[in-house]
Amino acid sequence: MYMTKSLIILIICFIIAANPAVFRATRGVLGSWIASPEGTAKLGGLVLHAIVFVAIVKLAKHVVSPMHADRSMIHAADNKTHSVGGLNISGQTTADIAPASYM
User: Fold this and answer.
1) pTM above the 0.70 mark?
2) 40: number of CA atoms within 13 Å, CB side?
3) Positive or negative CA dihedral for 24, 26, 28, 31?
């Protein structure tokens, strides 16, 4: 499920960053070095939009990752069976089982 959300976010970010309408709008704000009047990207526009794309993906990854980590911790807390050295031990924590030298 996490990978599906990540992929969907990545696709949406790419569609936004690579859209000719966005290049035209950016041209209106930053000038003609971004794109042609039709929205065809120029080299400077490609570089700028690539940087913005990476920034948006990194930001989105930080927004999605904590939610995924929280769910993992909840599921781990619900699971009362621990595996130590290939043995499943119910009702005990790893701290109860591990020798003091490993703690």
Assistant:
1) no
2) 2
3) negative
DSSP string of 44-73, one letter each residue: HHHHHHHHHHHHHHHHHHHHHHHHHHHHHH
- The helix or strand, by DSSP H or E, that contains position 32, with its residue range, turns out to be none
Percent of the chain residues topping a pLDDT of 70: 62
Q: Longest Cα pair distance anywhere in the chain, in angstroms?
A: 70
- Select from 56, 42, 63 the least CA-distant residue to 13: 56
User: Of 49, 57, 50, which is closest to residue 30 (Cα–Cα)?
Assistant: 49
Give dist(CA 98, CA 18) in Å, integer.
53
3-state secondary structure at position 85: coil
**Tokens matching residue 46:** 């490609």
